[in-house]
Design goal:
The chain is mainly alpha-helical. It has one domain. The protein is built from 13 helices and four strands. The strands form two sheets. Strands 1-4 form a two-stranded antiparallel sheet. A hairpin with a 2-residue loop joins β2 and β3. α8 runs antiparallel to α10 and α8 packs across α13. Belongs to the CobD/CbiB family.
Length: 308
């Protein structure tokens, strides 16, 4: 097997070039879909009873799916012989890294927004955010897409890449199932407050370093944003989400955050950054900052591979 940083660099480049090979793997589906289906099924059965029982069962769910992911990753690494290791890693990494798919999804929002087609832009942004989108105008759509772009740099790229370096395919796969669990049950509403506690806290831990790395990458890619990131990141409700979002706000010179609605309920969020709210053109600018940040990640991994 080749050195792990070299594997990661090949995986990052391969995923950016080909994305997820949907036609090839259509028969088995995306691993995130399997994880999501398992979480949904177990949640329906286990999320009941007292607060203590819900917390305990939520922890059991997390340990179970993370253990399965680690075992599958370990098994796949053992099965991949030297002659096919590179191909196996690149193929599997397309399910754990999301450079290409994130770029595709955000471009799908930017294109109609630049044309003034708010209905199509709302439908596209609803695919990548959890907030209510039915009444969003141009600025609201741009805010939602830029925030998702910045935060997903951490969740979908930097975090799985870092955990791959630390623990190979098991690390990458555990990172992805933790992130999926947090997105599904790691909420503070009545249904998930206790059951999703373990998923939310574990996701905070898994993404603590990657979030700060993502903020640094965005500031480097945009040639600024440091002051806003250091000033405003701590005001975000998440201990991690504020770092890449505040960095992107600072780089673009625009204001993110602010009030939104989730399932019809208003949520009062802190503001991040200075200046006016972003418009359609700022979303296109944000995409270029994101792409340069991904390139910087490649360079960093390549440098590590050269050193090792």
């Amino acid at each position: 097997m080749i050195a792990r940083p070299e594997q990661l660099l090949l995986a990052l480049i391969g995923e950016a070039a080909i994305g997820y090979p949907a036609p090839l793997l259509a028969a088995i589906g995306h691993p995130v879909m399997w994880t999501g289906a398992a979480i949904a099924a177990l949640e329906r059965r286990w999320n009941a009873g007292s607060a203590v029982r819900r917390k305990a069962m939520g922890l059991c769910l997390l340990v179970l799916i993370a253990g399965i992911a680690a075992a599958v990753g370990w098994g796949l690494e053992r099965l991949a012989g030297d002659s096919i290791a590179v191909a196996v890693v690149i193929l599997l990494a397309t399910t754990g890294l999301a450079q290409r798919s994130l770029d595709d999804h955000v471009r799908a929002v930017a294109a109609p927004l630049l044309r003034g087609d708010l209905a199509e832009a709302r439908a596209a942004v609803a695919m990548i955010v959890g907030r209510d989108t039915d009444t969003l105008g141009e600025q609201g759509i741009a805010v939602a897409a830029i925030e998702s772009l910045a935060e997903s740099l951490c969740d979908g790229i930097v975090a799985p890449a870092l955990w791959f370096l630390v623990a190979g395919l098991p690390g990458l796969m555990v990172c992805k199932v933790v992130n999926t669990a947090d997105s599904m049950i790691g909420h503070r509403d009545t249904r998930y407050r206790h059951f999703g506690w373990a998923a939310a806290r574990t996701d905070d831990l898994v993404n603590w370093i990657p979030a700060r790395m993502s903020g640094v990458l965005l500031c480097m890619a945009g040639g600024g944003g440091w002051r806003v990131m250091l000033r405003d990141a701590r005001h975000h409700a998440s201990p991690n989400g504020g770092w890449p979002e505040a960095a992107m706000a600072g780089v673009l010179g625009r204001r993110l955050g602010g009030p939104v609605r989730y399932d019809g309920e208003a949520a009062d969020r802190a503001w991040l950054g200075d200046g006016p709210a972003p418009a359609a053109g700022d979303l296109k600018r944000g995409l270029w900052v994101y792409r340069r940040a991904c390139l910087l990640l490649w360079i960093g991994v390549g440098g590590l591979a050269w050193l090792l």
